[in-house]
Hints:
The complex is a heterodimer of chains A (440) and B (372). By secondary structure, chain A is an alpha+beta fold. Helices cover 45% and strands 15% of the residues of chain A. In chain A, helix 2 (25-44) packs across helix 14, helix 6 (127-145) runs antiparallel to helix 7 (151-160) and helix 7 packs across helix 14 (402-431). With 372 residues, chain B is mainly β.
Amino acid sequence: MMAFRLLLVGVLGIAACQCQQADDPRSAWLENTIYEDHQDILLREPELAQLKFEKMAQSPFNYFRGSASQYLRDVSRPLKTRAAGFSDATILLVGDPHPENLGVYRDLEGDQSFEFNDFDAATFGPPEYDLWRLVAGFIVLESQASTSCDLGPAVVSGYASPWPSVTTDVEGTIIADLKQRALRDGEAREELDDYTLVEDGVRTLRLGDIEAREGSLFVDTLVAPTPAQRTLVQRAFDSYLPTVATRAQPGNIKDIALRLGAGVASYPFQRFYVLTEGPTASLDDDIILEVKETLSAPRGANLPLNPDKLWASNGERVVDAQRRLQSSPDVDPLLGWGDAGGMSFRVHERTKYQKGFDIVRYQEKMAEGDWDCADAADFATAAGQALAASHHRAGFKVSLSPAQQHETSSFAADYAAQALEDYERFKQLVERHAWSPRLR
Amino acid sequence: MRQVLPAIFVALLPVAASAAPPATEATAQAWIQAEVFGRGQYLETDDDDFNEFVLDRAEVGIGLRRSGLGGALLNFESVRSATPESLFGVDGNSLIVRAKHAFAFADPVLGPGRLRLAAGLIADPWITTLEDGYRLRAARPQASESSGFFDTSDLGASASYALWDGVAELTVAWMNGEGRNQVEQNTGKNATVVASVRPWKPIILGSEATLALHVVWRDGSVGQGFAPNHRLGGAVTLTHPSLGAGVEFISADGTQDLDVPAQVIAGWVDVDVYSHWLGVFVAAESQTFNTDMDDTSRLRLEGGLYSDVVERTQVTSWRHDVASEPGLSRLRIILHGRTDTYGDSAGAVVGSPGLSDVYQIMLTAEAAGLVF
């Protein structure tokens, strides 16, 4: 009976076990899911991953930008912060629509358009996921900017406006400002001034801090690639060239640099600037391409079918989604993708003709009184219209009753409040270095 | 407490090794076993439909044992290389091979019963208990497993003692808690206790049936945030060479991706209606994703017909001496259907169950056998 007695001791021991568990389950969930999402990046780029967390902790909106995966987990599972849907459709989604993922483009004919500009999280799902996130993003934006312009309902109203809604219906001051600055900086080829230098008749990328670092955070820095990275980019570039869908084509590679500091969610991803020959041998029409690593999109739970077998790589997924969901497939003329070394990249031109909405400028302009709530509401309405237009291109005809519009706005407000609470939890986790490398 | 269980195991091992007289004449056995479940399926939702071929399970295992002493088991399984949350894994989303079980065990006869000690990548004691005699694994994993409440295996150690040929059995296990696809994320360990009694073994249709009652309790945490990971449940099973039945219930506090209480209740019946050539099964399973909210359940109904082209013979298990001859010991074809219907608040979007409800028709082939 010795074995039985020993087992009994074991059982009693376990019964007395006070296994360590978190006091705040939501905080534990946040820590766990963020770790799951970043496990590979934490191993591959530990310093950059930590800097990403620091960047997310800088502001509520940065946290919101970096937590699309947590949002998707929340809205697709039975938690109390859920709203009734307005569709039974599964469509191609923008994936992570929020104010700073909106901006202006200029096509080969010189026409400007207002579009979503980040499709890294594009995947299939119900259109509600996009709308709720976009509305919540505007509410977080208001919270950070300390304004009370009630932008949530404006987004929903724009989204629900009768088709055909075009994004220029409600252009307003903010989009006009974006277009005007994009035209000015694009024509000046400001990107060449910012990121390159010419010595002895040869243009190369300018290495170093283009913008000063904020503490340890890179803001806009170019560094020399390793030989392995240079080979990787060359191979990705070779596989990218056939994927360009317009008549535009870059020339041979002149220089390559690793770009640090861009993005929030994609902050630690590999991102390169590639200087190439332009249409002529002149130095003035050289082109800068951004070659950005793409990883898998976060996905919602309980969505049974898997139509994403459409694509062979994440780069192709992101590019295909951009072409389908923007107003025209050639809005971004040099858009394409390249795969190399087991990695997948989205490639497009780094041109100042493309300019994104910037929350810091928004805060300044609102504080200075240059912009007011009417301007902000116009922008929010246009954002809603841009999303409706993308969804229409994906095959979903938007139709929301007033009650559905109201519920959408109130749910997004609830979720934004949740995100702001989570931001406080997140800051505490960052302060105690929750995701620091540990001894194993 | 964290030091108690390892101490027990360390203390037990030499005891087991020295005090275990072989029950019968000691025999050494080595075997390789293989098991494959493959199916073609058609899925339909309100929004879309899809058809595909799926490899549910492809396993090959190597076992060694010496009667009355112990041995080792190494099981490999196929798995898609991309995680459920990503699209692409190794070279797209290739099928790759990983370890499912890898452990050493000692199983001496000790007093009126048999002691079993195991350490390594061990089988979850609750899943092992439920699957003992379960005949429908190819058609439907047990609800405890399909719900995600229990993983098939985990790194750790276990000890069990079965009295009088299993009339009463107690198992304790101490594991990382992260399952077989993850390294340990926190310093806490999951403790699991499984108790079974098999009070009645009637003769039905000329063969012995076994009625068993099982309970499980687990305490622990998951992830580096120490999220709670509790389970409490029970099951009643009836096993027999020609039929099976059972019900199971699990209450879960904290699951991998949710910080909410959840539960699952399920039942099944399978009967050979015409020798081994034709059998029928039905099963029902209700999983509630958040017991604090209404309408958060998914109801899964399943049923089908099966035919054993090669009648099942006893396939070896690390828990028993090898009883089969080498060769194909089962070839079963299953034609079955499944419906998943979601409560208003359970699916991907509230009030849009059509997004999540699934209707499936499947034709599954199950093959298993010993190589030697």
